[in-house]
Amino acid sequence: MVPGAPVTLGPGFVEWCREKDVRVADGWGPGRGRSVGGDDFLPRRIYGEYLAWAAEELLRRVPFNLQVTVVEATAICVRPLGGAAEVGLDDGSVRLVDLAIVTTGHGLTSYGRGGTHDEGWIKRPYPLPDSLSGIESGQRVALLGSGLTAIDLIASLTVGRGGAFHLDGSDLRYAPSGGEPEVVLINRSGWLPCARPASPRTYPASRPTIAEGIERARRGRPDGLLNLTEDLEPLIWAEVFRGVENDWEVAALKRAFALRDPPTEDEAHFHAAVVEQARLDIQQARLGLGESRLKDRMETLRDQREALRAAVDPPGMNPKDHRAFFDGLPALANRTAVGPQRERLEELIQLIDQGIVRLGPGPNPVARRREGKWELLSTSLLDEARIEVDVIVNAHLDFPERDPAIDPLGDALRQWVAPHLANPKFLSLDRRGYPLTRNGKICETVAVFGPPAEGANYYNNYILWPGVWSRLLTDLDNVLRPLLRAS
User: Fold this and answer.
1) Each residue's pLDDT tens digit, 243-273
2) What's the pTM value of the predicted model, to 2 decimals?
3) How much is the average pLDDT of 5-31?
4) If 0-12 CB within 10 Å is exposed, 13-18 middle and 19+ buried, where does residue 65 land?
5) Which helix (H) or strand (E) holds 166?
6) How many C-beta atoms surround the C-beta of residue 59 within 10 A?
7) How far is Cα 167 from Cα 176, in angstroms, rounded to an integer?
8) How far, CA to CA in Å, does 348 sit from each of 138, 146, 275, 285, 451?
9) What CA–CA distance (Å, rounded) separates 199 from 180?
């Protein structure tokens, strides 16, 4: 995973699950299920248990010339101090270190800490099911988003309330419990997420086309700053449509990547098109990678993640295009290539067929408060459409806000790290992960990786795959290696 580094033997996550006899459902039939496979979706709780086990195992294997001290306290402050870094803990102690590495995950969102907003808007979707406890059966609830968080919420509001899926012959059916609300799905594109295909690759397809194009484009731009629409997007779409000749495949890809012109259909026609696209996607996901050219091409933003990171890495893009990149590309990659397992999309279509879930009034509707309810109004349909809902739930995770009450460490960083030129929510980091201070100097005694570095670079929250090169681990190795050598 890191060039030139020694290999640490597993077990990896899949092997560990098999050793623990973790089982996964085999369709919707009865029984204990089957053993875990490499492309199965498992509860995050189980992955957390594996990480906890792996951390203990790695600590047990520490060589004699390295000492590891685990401090069970919360870091509330980190800052440079001369040629070192100072880490303040919530027990009042301070640690002076040669290098502080910040890898604190996604952080916390400050709004909605009490659950439901006073005006019927649940701003924070987790933890489940507590965040949804105020939603009653028969109410109409709109989910703002249709990705993996929305899948979690729909599960909580259906099978989490006693409903059950079962097979009726070869057909999937849902037996409601009576405790479900009516769920309305709304998002910017109007389309549903694409299902993960069968037999996924264990490594990305190797095509340097986009990366080479980025290098050429930089040479022709002042200061090497890329233009999103002129430099990067043509490279992306050329790769997406490479080798695609059938009209139905072109149309399906345009829908998946929301490249079609703003829809002019009425609500019924648009809903029919969305469901038709989802059924096609399920069928192609069953074929799997290597069999479905459509799903192969949908992997583009996943396969080309490293090239897209190169577009964001310094010197990056001009500030306007940098903002536009992060406003659109991550969500597009999530919808087309990091979606739910096929079974979840099959269940969603069944819920739509039975009227428990319905689609919103077209792409990107607006919400306005009206007589104690929320009215959702279409913005892209030829014939105006609207629907009233009792509650809106944010079915997505927002970038953490600066809030010293719940995230003192993030707030402390922003007191001395310069904000990113494109967006003040992001930290300004160099390619190595070192922060740029507010007085314009690079601090090499603090390094930031993972989700806190998002915005300065791209897509830092993916799960690592054993045996596959990892940019994240390689970058961590690059900042640690000189320190360990000096010791």
Assistant:
1) 898 999 999 999 999 886 656 678 999 999 9
2) 0.89
3) 87
4) exposed
5) strand 164-168
6) 10
7) 14
8) 19, 10, 10, 15, 29
9) 34
Q: In whole angstroms, what is the distance from residue 284 CA to residue 454 CA?
A: 32
Phi and psi at 260, nearest 5°, equal -70, 165
* CB-count burial class (<10 Å; 0-12, 13-18, 19+) for 193: buried
Q: What is the pLDDT of residues 51-108, one digit of tens each?
A: 999 999 999 999 888 899 999 999 999 999 989 999 999 999 999 999 999 998 876 6
3 state SS of 196: strand
The DSSP code for 369 is E
Cα dihedral 449, 452, 454, 458, rounded to 10, equals 20
CB 300 within 8 A of CB 1: no
3 state DSSP class of 409: helix
List the end-to-end C-alpha distance of the chain, in Å, as a whole number: 24
Report the helix count and the strand count for the chain, using DSSP H and E. Answer: 14, 17
- Residue 314 CB neighbour total at 10 angstroms: 12
Residues β-bridged to residue 59 = none
**Inter-axis angle of helices 148-157 and 342-353, nearest 10:** 50
CB 402 within 8 A of CB 414: yes
| Tally of CA atoms within 13 A in the half-sphere of 471 that contains its CB | 18
Rounded Cα distance, 346 and 270, in Å: 19
Q: Indicate the helix (H) or strand (E) that contains 332.
A: helix 319-337
172, 190, 335 from 294: Cα distances, Å: 25, 20, 14
CA distance 478 to 487: 15
Strand 391-394 versus strand 140-144 pairing type: parallel
Angle, CA 235 vertex, CA 234 and CA 239 arms, to 5°: 115
Amino acid, single-letter form, for residue 50: Y
How far apart, in whole angstroms, are the C-alpha atoms of residue 223 and residue 221?
A: 6
3-class DSSP state of 359: strand
For 159, counting Cβ atoms within 10 Å of its Cβ (0-12 exposed, 13-18 middle, 19+ buried), the class is: middle
Q: How far apart (Å, rounded) are the C-alpha atoms in residues 387 and 376?
A: 5
> Residue 132: which of 175, 183, 174 has the closest Cα?
183
Assess contact for 289 and 199: CB atoms under 8 A: yes
Six-digit token pair at 63? 């060589």
Q: How many residues does the chain have?
A: 487
The yes-or-no verdict on residue 116 having pLDDT over 60 is no
Single-letter amino acid, residue 302: R
- The helix (H) or strand (E) run that includes residue 248 is helix 247-256
CA–CA gap between residue 387 and residue 378 (Å, rounded):
9
